[in-house]
């Protein structure tokens, strides 16, 4: 899968490619036994993912910080299909308190949990700290999802045991994981303002999404848990993600318009990895345009993944003590 396939939409070995939409990649799949959480499901790729999972009869929980957008997303889904099962719960990934409250709210619903889509994200933000004192792109894109996933794992494991259905976790990463700090993750200064680059901090958080998926995948395999964990690059899609770089992204899109996808195409890889039966048992992999790809050498570094896991635990613990 190279630039030629991206531009022409030529399908790869999976039979799908860059032009495939989320509806096409899930055609004929019955997900009525499945409950899925989609973070950031109120807009962009997350909304389309939630819409298509609901279309395939999954029970979808939209986890969002902007409740107006999330309720509007729910209204639109129900407008299309009055029988769709969609709920909305408040989640701010920038706040560990909010993440814990979300998990309590979800557990209180007494639903199973088969699929977790760690989709929410922010990009190219000026230097800023989260409520818990962590650099905001790392906090939102990686650390928040790290904590959320850990808190939901027991529920996912219990669901697979009872239902026999394979659990799936999908992390939304990006090709931008290639553009990070030279050491990959700034272990010695994750919150340093000195040397901060909005672009590299985004790349670092997206590298963290892949490392998180591969380390969690290894751990779950060792336990024998019936849960896969993979990461995806959705493609280049004009969404609200570009709010901090709106003008430069518009110009870039004009110059490189053949490389861009629309939102239905942008949600295809997530939906493929979340639902497609051909990926049964496939774990710890990285996907692009609905096909498996090799991520960067840093993203394949198991030592780095383990180190990030330990750092993430330390940071979550330190925030919990405050
Ligand atoms: N679009 C692309 O070209 C592209 C390329 C590569 C990877 N990605 C990845 O794809 C994912 C989805 O991006 P998108 O393009 O669909 O962008 P988007 O339309 O901006 O959607 C991102 C969603 O995340 C939510 N979010 C942001 N911060 C949050 C927080 N602290 N707590 C809870 N939710 C939060 C946003 O909510 P608000 O509306 O409240 O901000 C929004 O609903 C991201 O992880 C992104 O890194 C996108």
What are the key terms here?
single chain; 322 residues; alpha/beta; Rossmann fold; eight-stranded mixed beta sheet; two-stranded parallel ribbon; 11 helices; 10 strands; globular; binds NADP nicotinamide-adenine-dinucleotide phosphate; NAD(P)-bd_dom_sf; SDR_fam; Short-chain dehydrogenase TIC 32, chloroplastic; TIC32
Account of the protein in words:
This protein is of the alpha/beta class and 322 residues long. It has one domain: Rossmann fold. Helices cover 45% and strands 14% of the residues. It has an 8-stranded mixed sheet with strand order 3-2-1-4-5-6-9-10, sandwiched between helices. The chain is globular. The model has no long low-confidence stretch (mean pLDDT 96). The structure holds NADP nicotinamide-adenine-dinucleotide phosphate. The site of NADP nicotinamide-adenine-dinucleotide phosphate has 30 residues, from α3 and β7. NADP nicotinamide-adenine-dinucleotide phosphate binds next to α3 and β7. It comes from Eucalyptus globulus (Tasmanian blue gum).
């Amino acid at each position: 899968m190279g630039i030629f396939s991206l531009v022409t939409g030529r399908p790869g070995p999976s039979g799908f490619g860059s032009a495939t939409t989320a509806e096409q990649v899930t055609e004929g799949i019955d997900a009525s036994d499945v409950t899925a959480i989609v973070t950031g499901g109120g807009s962009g790729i997350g909304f389309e993912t939630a819409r298509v999972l609901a279309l395939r009869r999954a029970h979808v929980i939209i986890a969002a910080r902007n409740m107006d957008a999330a309720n509007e997303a729910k209204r639109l889904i129900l407008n299309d299909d009055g029988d769709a099962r969609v709920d909305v719960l408040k989640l701010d990934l920038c706040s560990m308190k909010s993440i814990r409250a979300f998990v309590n709210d979800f557990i209180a619903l007494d639903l199973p949990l088969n699929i977790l889509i760690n989709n929410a994200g922010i990009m190219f933000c000026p230097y800023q700290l989260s409520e818990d004192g962590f650099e905001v792109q790392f906090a939102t894109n990686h650390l928040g999802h790290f904590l959320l996933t850990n808190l939901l794992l027991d529920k996912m494991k219990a669901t697979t045991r009872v239902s026999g259905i394979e659990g799936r976790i999908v992390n939304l990463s990006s090709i931008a994981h290639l553009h990070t700090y030279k050491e990959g993750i700034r272990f010695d200064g994750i919150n340093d303002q000195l040397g901060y680059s909005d672009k590299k901090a985004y790349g670092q958080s997206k590298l963290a999404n892949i490392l998180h998926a591969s380390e969690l995948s290894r751990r779950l395999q060792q336990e024998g848990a019936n849960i896969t964990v993979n990461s995806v690059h959705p493609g280049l899609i004009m969404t609200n993600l570009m709010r901090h770089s709106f003008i430069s992204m518009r110009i870039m899109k004009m110059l490189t318009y053949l490389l861009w996808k629309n939102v239905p195409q942008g949600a295809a890889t997530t939906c493929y990895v979340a639902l497609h039966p051909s990926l049964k048992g496939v774990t710890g992999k990285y996907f692009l345009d609905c096909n498996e790809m090799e991520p960067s050498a840093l993203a394949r570094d198991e030592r780095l993944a383990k180190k990030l896991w330990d750092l993430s635990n330390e940071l979550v613990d330190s925030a919990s003590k405050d």
